[in-house]
Amino acid sequence: MRNRLQLVVLLGALAMASAVASAQNLRGWRESSFVPTAKGEWTGQRLPDGQPDVAGHWSNTVGNHNNLTDPQGPLGADDEAPPQNGGQNARRVKPRNERAPSRISDPPDGQIPFQPWARAKQQEFLKYLNNPILPEYVEPFARCAPGGPSKSFMWHGYEIRQFPGSVVFLFDSGNRVIYLDGRPHLPSNLKLWNGDSRGHWEGNTLVVDTTNNNSKARLGRSGEFVSENATIAERFIFDASGDRFTYDATYTDSTVLTRPFTITIPNRRVTDKTPADDWNNLTFPAKHAGNQPIIEAYERVCAEGNGNHGQVVVGSK
Amino acid sequence: MRSAALAVLALLAGSALGFAQKPASSPSIPRGADGKPDFSGIWQSLSGADYGLEPHLATKDGPPGAGVVEGGVIPYQAAALEQRAKNFAARATADPRTKCFTLGTPRGIYNSEPFQIFQRPRDLTLLYEFGHPVRTINTNGTEHPDGHIDFWLGDSRGHWEGDTLVVDVTDFNGETWLDRVGNFNSDELHLVERWSFIDRNTIRYRATFEDPKVYTRPWSIEVLLYRRLEPNVQIIENYCSTLDYDKYYPVPSTK
Question: Nearest CA of chain A to the CA of B219: how many Å?
Answer without folding.
Answer: 27
